[in-house]
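Figure 6 in text form: structure in, sequence out.
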C-alpha cells in the first residue's frame, strides 16, 4: 500500500516538472543552431585561416575576405568552404536546442497561474537560468573530464 502511494506521488511530481516542457522549442533551437552554422561557417573558416596565417611560406597568403573565399573555392570547391563543419553543427545545434528548451520551460513555469506577463527582469533572469542549465548539461554532463568529474 505504501508503494502505491509513493509511486503515485512520485509520478505526480514528474508530471508537474514535465508539464512545462515543450519539445517544439528544442527542435526550433536545434534547427536554428544548425542553419545559422551552415550559413556562417565559411566566414568562420576565413577567420580561422586569418588567425593561423602567420607569414609562413607554406601557407597561402590572403589579401582579404573575398580573396580568401575565392581561393578556397578555387582550390577545394564547396567542400573546402565547409571543411570542419560537422563538430560545429553538433555543438551549435545541441547548445541552442538545450537553451531554447530550458528557456521556454522556465518561462512557462514562471507564468503558470498568472494573468499578467512576465516583467523584463523576469525574462532576463529566465534567460540567465536557461543559459546556466544548458551550460551545465553541455559542459559538465558531456565533457566531464574537463571538469575533473
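Output sequence:
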Amino acid at each position: 500500500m505504501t508503494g502505491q502511494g509513493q509511486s503515485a506521488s512520485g509520478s505526480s511530481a514528474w508530471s508537474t516538472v514535465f508539464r512545462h516542457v515543450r519539445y517544439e522549442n528544442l527542435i526550433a533551437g536545434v534547427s536554428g543552431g544548425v542553419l545559422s552554422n551552415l550559413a556562417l561557417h565559411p566566414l568562420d573558416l576565413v577567420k580561422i585561416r586569418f588567425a593561423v596565417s602567420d607569414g609562413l611560406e607554406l601557407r597561402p597568403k590572403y589579401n582579404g575576405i573575398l580573396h580568401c573565399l575565392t581561393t578556397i573555392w578555387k582550390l577545394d570547391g564547396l567542400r573546402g568552404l565547409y571543411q570542419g563543419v560537422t563538430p560545429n553543427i553538433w555543438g551549435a545545434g545541441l547548445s541552442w536546442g538545450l537553451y531554447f528548451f530550458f528557456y521556454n520551460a522556465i518561462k512557462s513555469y514562471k507564468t503558470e497561474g498568472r494573468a499578467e506577463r512576465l516583467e523584463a527582469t523576469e525574462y532576463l533572469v529566465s534567460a540567465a537560468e536557461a543559459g546556466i542549465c544548458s551550460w551545465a548539461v553541455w559542459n559538465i554532463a558531456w565533457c566531464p573530464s574537463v571538469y575533473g568529474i
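Caption detail: The mean pLDDT is 83.
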